[in-house]
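Ticket #4471: complex job returned nothing on first submit. Input attached below:
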Amino acid sequence: MSRYYSISDVAERTGISAYTLRYYDKEGLLTFVRRSESGIRQFSEEDFEPLYTITVLKRCGMPIKEIRRFMELYLQGNDTIHERYLMFSRQKENLQKQIDELNRMMKIVDYKCWYFKEAEKYKDINYYKKLPAEEVDERINEFNQIIHDFREGSLTE
Amino acid sequence: MSRYYSISDVAERTGISAYTLRYYDKEGLLTFVRRSESGIRQFSEEDFEPLYTITVLKRCGMPIKEIRRFMELYLQGNDTIHERYLMFSRQKENLQKQIDELNRMMKIVDYKCWYFKEAEKYKDINYYKKLPAEEVDERINEFNQIIHDFREGSLTE
DNA sequence: TCTTGACTTAGAGTATACTCTAGGTTTTAC
DNA sequence: GTAAAACCTAGAGTATACTCTAAGTCAAGA
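Support reply: We reran it on our side without changes. The output follows.
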């Protein structure tokens, strides 16, 4: 029933290398893993859930020291449910900020793609400077305003 | 009209420290910046646009070596418009992948928040194990399936 | 029993992106 | 003219997250 998994079993199944697993252990992330009498790590079925949580937190961009804090709470059991809720709650906000930021970047990169396509037609990266003001696409003026704000240090990041 | 900006002017306006600007220069990102006879960097009005592009690419997660490649194309002028278009185009895909990934993480973190809120009511992190199967919320079964797949190495990331 | 392969630790090495120091030169302001 | 402030480079130091090596221990099959 409750079999054990060696570190290389776990590495193969999760895609986390054995080196990395040992490093995580050294950093205090895998304190839940049992050891045999001779000191060999024996991962149980249940260990895959916190292991998965580690991968999720990593992919959220959480640094290892913060993940350790979470794992400490995990080990303490039912008394820390609320605090763990708060950690995930903050993580949600954090994720949303990252998503918002990437969406902002997407808008700019999208503009750049459009602009380069236009410039390609004219074979001139500054083609719009030769156009009469009323023929310049509004997107270009908007982007130049961003650059202007960036230069003036008034860009609210 | 066309005034110059010192490295500390630029640092103050852009929020990039003078140390970092010099480091970027050393890494070949600021080859467009002119120097005075005595070797002092003189940023022009026009230099803020590529500088802004560097910050955008950084915030997209592009490593400095790749940004350097882009700046090389920038310096070559009109002949590289198409290649620069392609770089931004690829960056769009890359950004979308990052956004998708963060949205996936958001779903999981959202579930975790919900789960901890539930567990808090029961004061038991494993409360659902004591419930009859038909009373267990479907979200829990779905999540346990993810953990199962993770353990079996069949999680398609 | 012995050999092979997998495990262990400690610690060194790598990569990335800064961040700072030291020592020297240039510019600016009085 | 001179002192302070700002600039320069080279290179060392920091932080993060692995990644690997060395040297030794343990477990399983011939």
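The longest helix of chain B spans residues 81-122. Closing as resolved unless it happens again.
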